[in-house]
UniProtKB/TrEMBL annotation:
Subcellular location: Endomembrane system
Chief subcellular location: membrane
Topology of the protein relative to the lipid bilayer: Lipid-anchor
Protein name per Swiss-Prot or TrEMBL: Ras-related protein Rab7
Family per similarity comment: Belongs to the small GTPase superfamily. Rab family.
Any matching Pfam family: Ras
Keywords, sorted A to Z: GTP-binding, Lipoprotein, Nucleotide-binding, Prenylation, Protein transport, Transport
Any GO BP: protein transport
One GO location term (cellular component): endomembrane system
Gene name in the database record: RAB7_9
Gene Ontology terms, MF aspect: GTP binding; GTPase activity
Keyword field contains Transcription regulation: no
Length: 143
């Protein structure tokens, strides 16, 4: 068995022993015991013996990896939210323009914060403008 994800701590992984219906499992390349031991040695990776032909454990294996993916997604959201909080309470929103999810809320929050800090921005831009004096335009478009 070989597995070498670049970040194994964040890699979603299950092991599936397939085609267990063939000759009662006598043609296995890897014995079930060895597969289970390997999974245990790698932090209790979920292991499933499956047979698509006999519809055995296929749905269970799929549901397991789907559940792990949803848990991982929630963990990632928590990490992003925690990072934003650690940087001075930067607002964090999960948004989707396609599904019209949280877009208005995120925009209104950013607009409110921009208005609250309007004077801070003027100071910043005033300083930048002083470093780069305007040059007189002699020809061309006035834009």
């Amino acid at each position: 068995m070989q597995a070498g994800p670049s970040d194994p701590q964040r890699f979603l992984f299950i092991l599936v022993g397939n085609k267990i219906d063939l000759d009662g499992g006598s043609k296995r390349m890897v014995p079930e015991k060895k597969a289970r031991e390997w999974c245990a040695s790698k932090g209790d990776i979920p292991y499933f013996e499956t047979s698509a032909k006999e519809v055995h454990n296929v749905d269970t294996a799929f549901l397991c990896i789907a559940r792990l993916a949803l848990e991982h997604e929630h963990d990632q959201d928590m990490k992003a939210g925690e990072w934003c909080a650690s940087k001075g309470d930067i607002p964090y929103f999960e948004t989707s323009a396609k599904e019209d999810h949280n877009v208005d809320t995120a925009f209104l929050c950013m607009a409110r914060l921009a208005l609250e800090h309007e004077h801070d921005q003027d100071i910043y831009f005033k300083t930048v403008a002083e470093q780069f004096p305007e040059t007189e335009q002699t020809s061309g478009c006035a834009c």
